[in-house]
Amino acid sequence: MTADTSSRKRPDQRIGSFIIVDELKDPREGAGATGLGPSRARAFRARYQPQAGDAPLALDTDDIVVVRVLRDSAVRDSTQVNAFTREAELLSLIDHPCMVRGLTRGVTSGRMWMATEYVEGETVSTLLRAARQEGLRLRPEVALVVALDLLAGLSAAQAIADARGRPLGLIHRAVSPEVVILDRRGQAHLSELSAALLSVKEEPDDALVGALGYLAPEQARREPLTQGADVYAVGALLFELLTGQAAFSARDQEQLVAAHQANARERWPDDVDLPLDVKALVDQAMADTPEERPADAAALYALVEGLLGDPDDARERLALVVRDLIDSNPDRPAPLA
């Protein structure tokens, strides 16, 4: 995320146990999400500065977090309010280093908010854009380690259960480069669950929800979903990381949705030399039907892990690139000690 210098919020404004520092730009802005609309919340960097009587959190004073505040327009929409509350609850159930942690939530001066872990880094979309500008592609092992970490976080989300230990069948539905953050160590973090569907408790409505360019065919056709839809999205993202080009291209949204419905993805470029087992993995993840794909993120994780000889070495290579992206980005928010 980058700082929004146009923010009119006072830098000393308090929300719950936090003091607002600056506003962050929404990484999904202009990214082609469909059915999600504009982000329902504004995001701010904030310092943890609890007052007497505040419930203690597992944070040190002045630790940096992200505080997301529900927009005024969303407060008047019960569907948006319920979705925001549910996302905060879901994030609080997941404790995994590859998933941004939910910390707390509340209401201050009539405004709903949630606090989450702050990850200093750049999104995968920024990495892909920089590579295209330089005419470069990621090494296969580097692309695979991004997918490995993403799948680890996604697997933790898909595995959450109710108080009785029964799986909720979470389907993310909006995996895309904009919601995956790479930190200075080269580790990927899945950053949100704003479009998540709990398949054992909820039925999807007729609206198309997801990230254009990463929709499974059944998702684009508005058919019942399984966690295989998320597997497909990771496959599409991995295709892009490996080739430097999107798995789907079209002139407009209508044609892009139609391409998703028919699974009319791009062919492997002739000028990209990749191991056959890596191509086969992506092809399997992006198979026409959920039954032909790995069942869930955990199953795909096992396959990706089997292709990576030394993930730590690949992650360190990625870290070098990410640190350069962070340090050379003039729009980055100022570092906070």
Structural class per helix/strand content? alpha+beta
Q: Mean pLDDT score, rounded? A: 91
CATH top-level class of the largest domain: Mainly Alpha
The biggest sheet amounts to:
6 strands, antiparallel
Shape: globular
Task: Write a brief structural summary.
By secondary structure, the chain is an alpha+beta fold. The chain has two domains: 14-118, Phosphorylase Kinase, domain 1 (2-Layer Sandwich); 121-326, Transferase(Phosphotransferase), domain 1 (Orthogonal Bundle).
Strand-helix topology:
Blueprint: E1 14-15, E2 18-24, E3 33-34, E4 41-48, E5 64-70, H1 72-75, H2 78-92, E6 102-108, E7 111-117, E8 121-123, H3 124-134, H4 140-158, E9 170-171, E10 180-183, E11 188-190, E12 197-198, E13 210-211, H5 217-220, H6 228-243, H7 253-261, H8 276-285, H9 297-307, H10 311-328
Antiparallel strand pairs: 1-2, 2-4, 3-13, 4-5, 5-7, 6-7, 8-10, 9-12, 10-11
Helix pairs in contact: 4-6, 4-9, 4-10, 6-8, 8-9
Give an overview of the whole structure.
α4 crosses α10. The chain contains 10 helices and 13 strands. β6 and β7 form a beta hairpin. By secondary structure, the chain is of the alpha+beta class. It has a 6-stranded antiparallel β-sheet. It folds into 2 domains: 105 residues, Phosphorylase Kinase, domain 1 (2-Layer Sandwich), CATH 3.30.200; 206 residues, Orthogonal Bundle (Transferase(Phosphotransferase), domain 1).
Highlighted features:
3-stranded antiparallel beta sheet; alpha+beta; 13 strands; disordered N terminus; 2 domains; 337 residues; Transferase(Phosphotransferase), domain 1; 10 helices; 17% strand; Phosphorylase Kinase, domain 1
